Amino acid sequence: MPLSEEELRLLEQMERALVEEDPKLASTLRGTSLRRSARRRAIIAAVCFVIGVVVLMTGAIARITPVGIAGFVIMLGSATIAVAAVRGQQGGSAEPRSTGHPAHGFTVIDGGRSGRIRRPRRSRSNGSFMERMESRWRRRREENGGW
Questions:
Q1: Positions of the region Disordered (predicted)?
Q2: Longest dimension (CA), the chain
């Protein structure tokens, strides 16, 4: 059943209020601008990495150690930013479910730690490491008939 004109007007007002109040949440609900900005950060980081290589090689060829170190630091920083941007882009690339009016582009993105599985911790058996090793040794000797 389509929304009435009154409901569409109220929905648009609520969306505008949401964008004004919390633009980051609104962009997360849209899901596109965060991916675009992550891609932009990754591209800029790649360009900075190339600049860092040039600075590093310039320092090495000119035998100016501080310039070479600065180039390495630029490379390291840009690689860190690129990896963080790519990871952020992959984390938000889950296919969103559309829940709102299609004309507005708002979607709900599944969140949480769905990709991570928690493993229960193994309980430690009583005794120290050496006591456990000795009990294993005794068990093996008994199973093998003395040897």
A1: 91-147
A2: 89
pLDDT of residue 80: 93
Name the residue among 86, 79, 107, 98 with its Cα closest to residue 35: 86
- Whether the CB-CB separation of 104 and 11 falls below 8 Å is answered with yes
Q: What is the pLDDT of residues 103-141, one digit of tens each?
A: 455 555 555 555 555 555 555 556 788 888 888 888 888
Q: Where are the alpha helices (DSSP H) in the chain?
A: 5-21, 23-30, 33-61, 65-91, 129-143
CB atoms within 10 A of CB 91: 12
> In angstroms, rounded to a whole number, what is the distance separating the alpha carbons of residues 77 and 84?
11
* Residue at 84: amino acid letter: A
CA torsion sign, 52 to 53 to 54 to 55? positive
Residue carrying structure tokens 């969140």:
111
How many degrees, rounded to 5, is the angle at CA 94 between CA 89 and CA 95?
130
Backbone angles phi, psi at 104, to 5 degrees: -95, -20
Q: Sign of torsion, CA 20 44 106 9? A: positive
